[in-house]
Design a protein that fits this description.
By secondary structure, this protein is an all-alpha fold. About 70% of the residues lie in helices and about 0% in strands.
Amino acid sequence: MKHKQSPGEILPDAEIVELYHARSEEAIAESDRKYGKACYRIAYNILYSHEDAEECVNDTWIRAWNAIPPERPGSLGAWLSAVTRRLALSRYQYKTAAKRQRGVETSLEELSECVPDGSITLADEVTIRNAINGFLASLTPSVRMVFMRKYWYMDSVEDIAKAMGMTESAVKVCLHRTRKKFRAWLDKEGIVV
């Protein structure tokens, strides 16, 4: 049942999804209001460009408009974040074909020893997704947050240290140990790298 929205109130995900299904442009405004800053942060941490990050966020809203319906994301925030991240990584690859940006490139290189190459099937993708979700669930909340901030949001070690109240050295050690655990977890799950 739809409730009357008061000024400044953030709509629940289910109601925003319903706005998309009703083809109401308010869906985009509500998505931006609720998830715009988070999506911008993801894009900016990958691209280090305000203009490119803003374009990725705008492209995210277009993708959402075109995909919902028929899609009905269970977690709209996670779904929009994933779309933004894919768009930003695609733009990053395009813009850095000849040059490298250190932070994102380093993050991707660090994980390359843990994750399979690009030649995976849809069934493999589901298996890998389940293994990653299991691994993340096995971590303590603070370690999971450090890992996600580095490899999902592409935050710098310095930013993670400030946000988590840790030293940069402690963050680096945590990331190194977690990558080793991640590799062992994938091996245990039978996922060949």
